[in-house]
């Protein structure tokens, strides 16, 4: 049985009760990955001709008034985005519930998405030498930035962009997935720093500063560099080491540009000069190098937006 909605929940999400359907319409097959706050399985739609789906299984602690409001907000956000049917955002097909686990005081919920063959991390791992062509990288980057621009226009910051959350179909259509950490943003919001996998985490997050949509653009830059190298651009094992790896490439910010009131002192890092990206990524073209440097600006207020990135000359030749 579905946990009841409180009066506030029912008023805020009047259609939510009808969204939660029985799981019997779907067959859970094999596990295909771990998403933010949930495990993802390949499944089968038993009603729709056995079509494959992706099922994100999450355990929800039951509040006294029923399903927690945070979970309802995430579902409502996904449904809101889905109404606009952007081609580069994964489609939410259904929301179904599993059993209530009384001993654990929680219930199981499944978010059912369209199934895409692989993610970008798998695609890169399977890519034969000499690696991905510049045309494919440009096509994938344009689609990722198009999806990110759509999110930002709807005041949504994804907060966990990485190759594992970028789905790639057999005909190279790109879908951004896993909105478990997504948030409706406000200007200069200061939220938990436990967002974005470490290798794709922007400097402002690593330093505990306020952040907004620019964190997604930084992650896009990291993904772009990784597609050329086929290895992570910055692969630190701690926040301090991650910043050190970043500064080895973009250079240590000047004293004037170092943010005030942060726990990590500028003197903690070596005084690296800015490195020419061509030495780090020999395969990148001059226009791609220029775009990547604009996405990897230390100062988030000077970092290029997703919309402006799409207008960059790098994409003119597609």
Automatic annotation (TrEMBL):
User: Which positions fall inside the Protein kinase domain?
Assistant: 26-315
Question: PROSITE patterns annotated for this entry?
Answer: PROTEIN_KINASE_ATP, PROTEIN_KINASE_DOM, PROTEIN_KINASE_ST
Q: Which InterPro entries match?
A: CDK (IPR050108), Kinase-like_dom_sf (IPR011009), Prot_kinase_dom (IPR000719), Protein_kinase_ATP_BS (IPR017441), Ser/Thr_kinase_AS (IPR008271)
Question: What keywords were assigned to this record?
Answer: ATP-binding, Kinase, Nucleotide-binding, Serine/threonine-protein kinase, Transferase
- Any one Gene Ontology BP term: G1/S transition of mitotic cell cycle
Q: Does the keyword Coiled coil apply?
A: no
Query: Recorded E.C. number(s)?
Result: 2.7.11.22
Residues reported in the UniProt entry to bind ATP: 56
Q: What Gene Ontology terms describe what this protein does at the molecular function level? A: ATP binding; cyclin binding; cyclin-dependent protein serine/threonine kinase activity
**Catalysed reaction equations from the record:** L-threonyl-[protein] + ATP = O-phospho-L-threonyl-[protein] + ADP + H(+); L-seryl-[protein] + ATP = O-phospho-L-seryl-[protein] + ADP + H(+)
CDD domains attached to this UniProt entry: STKc_CDK4_6_like (cd07838)
State the family named in the UniProt similarity comment for this chain. Answer: Belongs to the protein kinase superfamily. CMGC Ser/Thr protein kinase family. CDC2/CDKX subfamily.
Q: Write down what this protein is called.
A: cyclin-dependent kinase
The lineage, from the top, is: Eukaryota, Metazoa, Ecdysozoa, Arthropoda, Hexapoda
């Amino acid at each position: 049985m579905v946990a009841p909605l409180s009066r506030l929940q029912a008023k805020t999400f009047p259609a939510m009760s009808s969204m939660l359907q029985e799981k019997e319409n779907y067959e859970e097959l094999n596990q295909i990955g771990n998403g933010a706050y949930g495990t993802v399985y390949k499944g089968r739609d038993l009603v729709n001709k056995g079509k494959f789906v992706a099922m994100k299984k999450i355990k929800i602690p039951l509040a006294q008034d029923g399903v927690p409001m945070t979970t309802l907000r995430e579902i409502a956000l996904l449904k809101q985005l889905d109404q606009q049917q952007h081609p580069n955002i994964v489609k939410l097909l259904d929301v179904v519930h599993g059993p209530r686990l009384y001993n654990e005081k929680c219930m199981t919920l499944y978010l059912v998405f369209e199934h895409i063959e692989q993610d970008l991390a798998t695609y890169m791992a399977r890519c034969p030498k000499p690696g991905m062509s510049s045309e494919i990288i440009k096509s994938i980057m344009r689609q990722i930035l198009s999806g990110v621009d759509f999110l930002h226009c709807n005041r949504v910051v994804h907060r966990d962009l990485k190759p594992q959350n970028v789905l790639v179909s057999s005909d190279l259509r790109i879908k951004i997935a896993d909105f478990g950490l997504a948030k409706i943003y406000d200007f200069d919001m200061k939220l938990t720093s436990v967002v974005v996998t470490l290798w794709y985490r922007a400097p402002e997050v690593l330093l505990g500063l306020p952040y907004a949509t620019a964190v997604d653009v930084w992650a896009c830059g990291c993904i772009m560099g990784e597609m050329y190298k086929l290895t992570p651009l910055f692969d630190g094992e701690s926040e301090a080491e991650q910043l050190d790896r970043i500064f080895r490439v973009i250079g240590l910010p000047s004293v004037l540009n170092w943010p005030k009131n942060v726990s990590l002192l500028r003197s903690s890092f070596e005084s690296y000069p800015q490195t020419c990206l061509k030495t780090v990524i020999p395969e990148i073209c001059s226009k791609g190098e220029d775009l990547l440097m604009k996405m990897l600006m230390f100062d988030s207020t000077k970092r290029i937006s997703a919309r402006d990135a799409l207008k960059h000359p790098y994409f003119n030749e597609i």
